[in-house]
Design brief:
Distance between the termini of chain B: 63 Å
Number of helices of chain B: 10
Radius of gyration of chain B: 42 Å
Shape of chain B: extended
Helix content of chain A: 55-70%
Strand content of chain A: under 5%
Structural class of chain B: mainly alpha
Structural class of chain A: mainly alpha
Number of strands of chain A: 0
Distance between the termini of chain A: 32 Å
Oligomer: heterodimer
Largest sheet of chain B: 3 strands, antiparallel
Shape of chain A: globular
Order of helices and strands of chain A: HHHHHHHHHHHHHHHH
Helix content of chain B: 40-55%
Strand order of the largest sheet of chain B: 2-1-3
Strand content of chain B: under 5%
């Protein structure tokens, strides 16, 4: 089950060019008729909250009896923990060797976010899911890392790495299923490149659009930590990043929208765009790292719930193989915990 | 394909796929060797149901399920007696009722229900309709004979034709050989120059060829098409009605990108986009990659879904 893929440099270019050639002929690779637009883009933040609440409730109703009500996480605590684990995922990807391309990181974060839109943290521990998301994202985005290389990035003993790998491979199919097999994620990084090229070509008012690149990229990285990817198209997020950078630098860019995009006469679309961009900016600005105390409280509860579930299962089913929780439970007790992932 | 195996020796059927299963009147199977063994001992009873059997009653199994073979046998016997045809009945309903009666009898006998009553019914029917049965039997035999005659005729025809073609071929070969021989003889004996003789020979050879060709084309004219229509029948020459349909016009596919219009790939250079992308090195270009591809893709991605 260990995947090994060695791609020679010359073949890599050939494959890349083929991908580019064919993708422009197959309309299905574009955002406007992608599964992301059809199934994973929502109108309002409230819709996302509703889904997460439903997932939380569903778990509560299915939970085995014998667990005290107060031991469960409510949706606010879940949100705190989610933010915490998203940050861990980002950190894991940032120290990854070989260096992970931005699109792979973006895809991994999106997978993580989508998974916990319909599932509760209490059912599947985010520690495993986050590694599985990264692993799957490497595969899907054609960033070829062997699985041993992958777990080599965990700061653990080889035995623990091996165990982690087993768990990742177990959870992989579950993750793909919960993503409804929609594996192609459109990130805002390429649209950003496109805008920079377009600005250089068609917008002479801006002398050197390259100055906007740094702040725009920073904006996009921060946006990846929010729900923006689930609410807006990636091109719009990229445009927001560019305009935000320009505003910071005191550069005027309305003419780009009215003249180059041809929106001079289309007041409605223009106002809609400005509105969405405002929403994106506020989402990004509103993001803050979760507080340590809240995180610790949440984590304690989480570990207890998972331990409790595992023992319940063991009591009922013995050591049957069909429950992931049983296997994981053995690992949590013995070897690696969250602290082992602490590199900072 | 393999049945469960011979019920007696069990293993032999698997080991020996060429071994045949035999079925008897009670519907149970036995492989050939078991049949022989059974009758060597003199006792003729079926292994599973203990009905007394005779060796002649065993027939080679045709169907996988022995029950079907049994039914087929019974059906044959019943239909020998119940051999009325559709024209014997005044109405279609009468014929259908008769057929249903036959099916019931076959079913009862196959599944051993009311065997006595059924047999009595059969005997009664036989007595009542003796002459009809006889007449139909005679008809059947006559029909079969006619069919056989036709088949025989066809075969004979075919044989004749084959012989004919063989003979023709032989004759042609002989003629060619004679021609060659004649040439050699003339070369030996005649006074004329060799070139002239060769020309004459070539002439004769071509004449022979044309003769053969004509013979081949001189096929016996038939008077009937293969589909059964007689030749020479007048066919209606009225024009076939034309079906007017709308001509298909190609419309290029249109996709809504929910964004501003994207420049075409071939326009990128002219519009100046390519100045702002990394030029493709020779190594990149080897695979068919051009800088325009990456540029186009980036711009497409930037514009797609912008107005949503």
């Amino acid at each position: 089950m260990h995947h090994e893929l060695i791609v020679l440099t010359k073949d890599y270019y050939m494959i890349k060019s083929m991908l580019l050639i064919f993708s422009s002929y197959f309309e299905s690779t574009m955002y406007h008729n992608s599964s992301q637009k059809k199934f994973w883009t929502f109108d309002k933040e409230e819709a996302l909250d509703k889904l997460r609440l439903e997932a939380n409730q569903k778990f509560l109703s299915c939970a085995k009896a014998g667990i005290n009500e107060s031991m469960f996480l409510d949706q606010w605590e879940e949100k705190v923990l989610l933010r915490h684990y998203e940050k861990r995922l980002l950190d894991f990807c940032n120290i990854f060797k070989p260096a992970m391309p931005k699109s792979v990181v973006g895809t991994a974060l999106m997978y993580f976010r989508r998974f916990y839109l319909n599932n509760s943290l209490m059912q599947h521990h985010p520690r495993i899911i986050m590694l599985t998301c990264a692993y799957l994202s490497c595969k899907v985005d054609e960033f070829n890392v062997s699985c041993t290389q992958f777990v080599g990035n965990l700061q653990e003993s080889p035995a623990a790495q091996e165990r982690a790998l087993e768990q990742i491979l177990e959870y992989e199919l579950l993750l793909i299923q919960q993503l409804n097999f929609h594996l192609v994620v459109h990130n805002p990084y390429r649209p950003l490149e496109g805008f920079l090229i377009d600005l250089k070509t068609r917008y002479p008012l801006l002398e050197n659009p390259e100055v906007l690149r740094k702040s725009a990229e920073d904006f996009l990285n921060r946006a990846a930590m929010t729900d923006a990817g689930l609410l807006f198209s990636p091109s719009l997020i990229a445009l927001t990043a560019v305009l935000n950078g320009a505003a910071r630098a005191g550069l005027k860019m309305e003419a780009y929208l009215t003249e180059c995009m041809g929106l001079k006469g289309d007041k409605e679309t223009l106002s809609k765009m400005y509105d969405s961009m405002r929403r994106i900016t506020s989402l990004v600005k509103a993001y803050e790292l979760p507080k340590i105390e809240e995180v610790n409280v949440g984590k304690q509860k989480l570990e207890r719930i998972h331990a409790e579930l595992a023992t319940n299962l063991k009591r009922k089913h013995g050591y049957e193989d069909d429950e992931h929780v049983v296997k994981r439970q053995m690992v949590t007790e013995e070897e690696w915990t969250d602290e082992d992932l602490d590199e900072l | 394909m393999d049945d469960q195996g011979c019920p007696r020796c069990k293993t032999t059927k698997y080991r020996n796929p060429s071994l045949k299963l035999m079925v008897n009147v009670c519907g149970h199977t036995l492989c050939e060797s078991c049949v022989d063994m059974l009758f060597v001992r003199g006792s003729g009873n079926c292994v599973q149901c203990n009905t007394p059997l005779r060796k002649s009653n065993f027939r080679v199994q045709l169907f996988e399920d022995p029950a079907i073979d049994k039914e087929v046998e019974i059906r044959k016997k019943v239909l020998k007696i119940y051999n009325k045809r559709e024209l014997d009945f005044p109405s279609l309903k009468g014929y259908n009722d008769y057929l249903e009666q036959v099916e019931e009898i076959v079913y009862n006998l196959t599944n051993n229900l009311d065997v006595e009553k059924t047999k009595q019914m059969m005997e009664q029917y036989q007595r009542e309709n003796r002459d009809v049965i006889q007449r139909n039997k005679a008809k059947l035999t006559r029909e079969q004979e006619e069919l056989e005659e036709l088949l025989l005729l066809e075969q004979q025809d075919f044989e004749q034709r084959r012989l004919q073609t063989l003979q023709d071929e032989q004759r042609q070969l002989q003629a060619k050989r004679k021609n060659k021989q004649a040439l050699l003889d003339e070369l030996e004996s005649s006074q004329l120059p060799a070139a002239l003789l060769l020309a004459q020979h070539k002439d004769r050879a071509s004449q022979l060829e044309t003769q053969i060709e004509k013979q081949k084309q001189n096929v016996k004219p038939t008077n009937i098409f293969s589909t059964g229509i007689m030749m020479g029948q007048t066919v209606s020459l009225a024009p076939v009605t034309r079906v007017e349909e709308v001509l298909y016009v190609y419309q290029p596919m249109h996709f809504d990108t929910y964004g501003p219009p994207i420049p075409e790939l071939d326009q990128l250079g002219r519009l100046g986009y390519l100045n702002h992308v990394r030029t493709a090195s020779l190594q990149d270009q080897a695979g068919g990659y051009t800088s325009g591809l990456a540029c186009h893709r980036a711009v497409q991605d930037a514009f797609s879904g912008l107005f949503l």
